[in-house]
TrEMBL record:
CDD domains: HTH_YyaN
Taxonomic superkingdom: Bacteria
Keyword Transcription regulation included in the entry's annotation: yes
Protein name: MerR family transcriptional regulator
Gene Ontology MF terms: DNA binding; DNA-binding transcription factor activity
Pfam families the record matches: MerR_1
The keyword Magnesium belongs to this UniProt entry's keyword annotation: no
HTH merR-type domain: residues covered: 1-68
Originating organism: Schaedlerella arabinosiphila
Keyword list, A-Z: DNA-binding, Repressor, Transcription, Transcription regulation
């Protein structure tokens, strides 16, 4: 599949795909003319890379995970350990953001009370 069709199918820009390839996150086959030739399996892989990025995983950790993935099933335990560590990090971030949200809600509540008091 050529890059434009793959980009559309994966929901990611062609420039991002080239970046992923340059950083070693995505290994793409080439046709005899040297053009990128993406497979259907690459779509889910790219979507997973995006989810890792969206959750705040560091690029070096995504690269390490990608390297392990391309090594095959012998690395499943190490990949799982990476994901478990990242999950713990996401949970910590979630707790932090819940605190931020509570603080905002408290401040909004104070303003709501002040506005209501001015009306009476």
């Amino acid at each position: 599949m050529i890059i434009s069709k793959f980009s559309e199918a994966a929901g990611i820009s062609a420039s991002a795909l080239r970046y992923y390839e340059k950083k070693g996150l995505l290994r793409v086959n080439r046709d005899p003319a040297g053009r990128r030739d993406y497979s259907e399996d690459d779509i889910e892989w790219v979507k997973f890379l995006q989810r890792l990025k969206d959750t705040g995983m560091l690029l070096r950790d995504i690269r390490h995970y990608s390297d392990l993935r391309y090594q095959g099933d012998s690395t499943v335990e190490e990949r799982m350990a990476l994901l478990v560590r990242h999950r713990e990090s996401v949970l910590e971030e979630q707790k932090k953001w819940e605190g931020y949200l509570r603080n905002l809600d408290e401040k909004i509540h104070i303003y709501e009370k002040k506005i209501e008091e001015r009306k009476t």
